[in-house]
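Translate sequence into structure tokens.
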Amino acid sequence: MRTSNRNLTAQQTSIHPAALPGHVELAVANLDEQIGFYQRTLGFQQHWRSGPQAGLGAGGADLLKLTERPGFKRYPHATGLYHYAVLFPSQRELARAVGRLFSLHYRNYPTDHIMTKTTYLEDPEGNGIELYAESPEDGVFAIEKDRFITRRADGSLSSGREALDLQTLFAHLQPHDDPDEPIPPETRIGHIHLHVSHLGEAVEFYQRVIGFDLMGVSHSLQAAFLSAGGYHHHIGLNTWQGAGAPLPLADALGLETFTIVLPDEAAWQDAEARILMSGIPYEATPAGMRLFDPSRNGVMLTLPPTGF
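Result follows.
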């Protein structure tokens, strides 16, 4: 276990700007079915499998780790995963992914957030997934004075939840593009969005303990967004299951842990110092520091995997 004797400066109270979301760990009821879905429907590769566990992704570091938990249940209206978001390197690759979904007649909801192009779906066990690509040239979104505001590049306002123009998206495809090819190796986890019990409590945890910068809170929307390095959001929080929503029980399917990858040892020591100063207990594992937010969402802080 690493230890930190650091006294944090004001700058070090923020997480390192190069910190990024890593893999997501899910408890699943049927490992074979879930592996098949992610390979066939989303184009993930199976990196490894050992007993009840498997790792999947784009051929490099895992994006997703699945663990089969016999007898576990899905608890509705509890805290946990709203969705995890898979970030594609271009709109062309997003178009390939969306094209695959349509060719398989898999239900999804293409949406134009202006600053990003996206579609939403669920895996066979109800875990929420967002597939997206950045499109900052089209405009921006932000929370201003408690409201979610989306402005197009020409200055006009958008709801930020418009139906995505699929004809424009598919125009990025080239004649030789094959929707059945695996997702490209540059694909990564872009952000994680969580159901929480109390918005202020969750914001304080991710800002003060983990060190993410607050990008905005909307009490009318019942949501907040935080990030490292000025990104629009690496963490989304909401109370859409209801303020005071119950925590998942120990035998709950769904999110077990999501990972935050710190770039180097100095960033690790800063992160550990923040956690120690908070007094919140954490578990030192071979993979990193594991702790829970106030809504019992698991967070793992780690260093980059070797070999990638």
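Note: Residues 11-302 form a domain with the 2,3-Dihydroxybiphenyl 1,2-Dioxygenase; domain 1 fold (CATH 3.10.180.10).
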